[in-house]
Amino acid sequence: MIDLKGRKKVAPILKPIAAFLAKLHFTPAVVTVVGLLVTIAGAVLIATGELVWGASIAGFGVILDALDGPLARHQGTASNRGAFLDTMSDRFGEIAIWIGLSVYLRTNQRLLVLCVVSLAFSLLVPYVRAHAELLGLEGKGGWMGRAERMLLILTGIGLVGFGLDVMEPVLWAFALLTGFTVLQRIWKTWQQLDS
Fold first, then answer.
1. What is the pLDDT of residue 70?
2. Which pTM was predicted?
3. What is the rounded distance in angstroms from the CA atom of residue 22 to the CA atom of residue 26?
4. DSSP 104-127
């Protein structure tokens, strides 16, 4: 939802940042890779129990990754390769965060299982979209796009780092909402298919 509705609202903020990065001769690919590396660094901190720092740094990496598209459009270099690199970076970043959280929660079997389920649904959301688009259909939509997923899990991790015991409810909410998003996208795609 943020991906669909929030881009227009965020664009005026991202455009000047993209223009500044262009002046520094950054390329969209470099911004994508740096964003991924920063996200992975945050995930490592999460794994070691530095939850507030880890969530903050991973969040900064996610924000950096949001700049590659505006930068590519600013430079007139948008390409299929860039879009592919961005998509792969998004998935690797999500996986890194979930691995980091799983390592942190490794002694709690119930929460560890919730991490696995959440990661599975998190990866299925873009998979359904990609398959729909492969068929020439509209695959976007649903409650938990990437922005919502990252916001929920990183906020939850940060709150736990501040001493609030919210990890289990956050993971349940994530798994249920993301699972429902998968169903929303499947249903939307199914309705567009010829019988």
1. 87
2. 0.91
3. 6
4. HTTT-HHHHHHHHHHHHHHHHHHH
